[in-house]
Amino acid sequence: MEIMILFGVFALLLMIGVPVAFSLAAAALATLAYIDLPPLILAQQVTAGAGSASLVAIPLFILAGEIMMRGGISERLIGLASAMVGRMRGGLGQVSIVSSLFFGGVSGSAIADVSAVGGAMIPQMVQRGYAKDYAVNVSINAALVALLVPPSHNLILFSAAAGGGVSIIDLFAAGMLPALLMTAAMMVTAYVLARRAGYGTEAFPGFTALLQRFVAALPGLMLVALIFFGIRAGIFTAVESAAIAVLYALLVACVVHRKLGWSAFLDTLTHAARTTGAILFVIAAAASFGWLLAYLEVPAATVEAMRAVADSKLAILLLIMVVLLLLGTFMDLAPMILICTPIFLPVAKAYGIDPLQFGVVLILAGGIGLVTPPVGSVLFVGTAIGRIGVGEALKTIWPFWLAAFAVLLAVAFIPALSLWLPLALK
Predict the structure, then answer these.
(1) What CA–CA distances, in Å, run from 289 to 17, 58, 331?
(2) Cβ within 8 Å of residue 355, ≥6 positions away
């Protein structure tokens, strides 16, 4: 009954439109009242949930991404991508995909990715004769790559939700090959659809222009190397790398590109603070929910229930993916990570699934939910930019969904895709 109250109140509040953080806290409070525990526990767990030192990296990476986005780096990354892949069929679509890969290493956020790259590329594609639904679907699905490359906020959240037992730098490494695979899958899908629709190509500017654009974009691309190799080499921790990323972003935006004025800087701080507040509020509320899951022994019960349904590693992983895909249709990724990790990670470990592989699978499955209704935040941002109805976009999005599902299955059933690089770098 306690578990039914916990999940029932949470689901009911979500269905009537209550924000996720309030739904989590209210469900925890109702369950505490039912089992006659003091409500002070809620306050204690909320405070503890937002007090983890490792979470300091999240607001700093958000700020670094905001500074880089407003500091002129997105235009240079798009220019480099255009020189590299613009001559492929459906050139502007390919540019959007590769730009999302580059920009994901700056922003660490799918919504920031589609806002920056999609905001620039979707109008250009429509103006050049591409169908609106194609332009939107290419951009929003390409933005999922940002979930897997450093400095992905969601990988940091998974590390925190796993109790700190999963290394952030190993998670960053685990996401790189799947991110490249997702990029390749989206490029192939966009190429096939562009060829069928008869979309053209962009002129190749020449190797000299390619080199010039690479040099211009290099300060932005170096942010990923600074974060990843700095942590891997033991020069600084994840939190220290986030602080250095902010200083580096300020240097690039203010000194190298000279595009971040005082007014834009204040807007950047405001936007970063709002984003951080929303994320940390969810993290804090989810801590009380997670404490109750452990108190009510939900993870252990889940392990036993799944053992009764499936008896092999692959069957369990497939079952977990189905549940995650269903949850992703009505739950945003951050709360999904915080709720599902303490439930399903013990199940994965019990069947010998590596936590790094499970983390990538969880984020990929939840990320697909960002481009599916009814609560697909990336889907709604992309359709708003493209000035197209959600229903119209969904009519032709299925090839990109199939590509994303194929990548998810590959990562789930081929462990080396997520485990080879972390092992190779040890």
Answers:
(1) 19, 21, 15
(2) 162, 165, 166, 345, 348, 349
Burial class, 324, CB count within 10 angstroms (exposed 0-12 / middle 13-18 / buried 19+): buried
| Whole-structure pTM value | 0.83
Domain extent for 237: 2-424
User: Do 90 and 142 contact (CB within 8 A), yes or no?
Assistant: no
pLDDT tens across 198-234, in order?
887 778 888 888 899 888 888 878 877 787 777 777 7
DSSP secondary structure letter of residue 203? P
Q: Which residues contact 77 (CB under 8 A, 6 or more apart)?
A: 99, 102, 103, 106, 117, 217, 220, 221
One-letter amino acid of 74: S
Distance CA 173, CA 228 (A): 8
> For residues 119 and 115, what is the distance between their CA atoms, to the nearest angstrom?
5
Q: How many CB atoms are closer than 10 A to CB 43?
A: 12
Other CB atoms closer than 10 Å to residue 44's CB: what's the count?
14
Contact between 115 and 136 under an 8 Å Cβ cutoff? The reply is no
Q: Alpha carbon of 402 to those of 141, 182, 311, 323, 328: distances in Å?
A: 11, 11, 27, 18, 16
Provide DSSP, 312-378.
SHHHHHHHHHHHHHHHHTTS-HHHHHHHHHHHHHHHHHHTT--HHHHHHHHHHHHHHHTTSSSS-HH
Does 189 score more than 90 pLDDT?
yes
Interatomic CA distance for residues 413 and 267, integer angstroms: 44
Look at the chain and report how many structural domains it folds into: 1
For the range 372-377, what are the long-range contacts, defined as Cβ-Cβ under 8 Å and sequence gap of 24 or more? 372/328, 372/329, 372/401, 373/329, 374/329, 374/330, 375/329, 375/330, 375/331, 375/332, 376/329, 377/111, 377/332
Burial class, 212, CB count within 10 angstroms (exposed 0-12 / middle 13-18 / buried 19+): middle
SS3 300: helix
Cα end-to-end distance, the chain, whole Å: 46
**3-class DSSP state of 109:** coil
Report the C-alpha gap between 135 and 197 in whole angstroms: 12
pLDDT of residue 72: 73
Q: Is the preceding peptide bond at 374 cis, omega within 30 degrees of 0?
A: yes
SS3 content of the chain, % helix, strand, coil (to 5): 80, 0, 20
Is the distance from CB of 373 to CB of 190 less than 8 angstroms? no
Q: Is the pLDDT of residue 340 over 80?
A: yes
Residue for token digits 């990336």?
378
As a whole number of Å, the CA-based R_g of the chain is 21
20: helix, coil or strand? helix
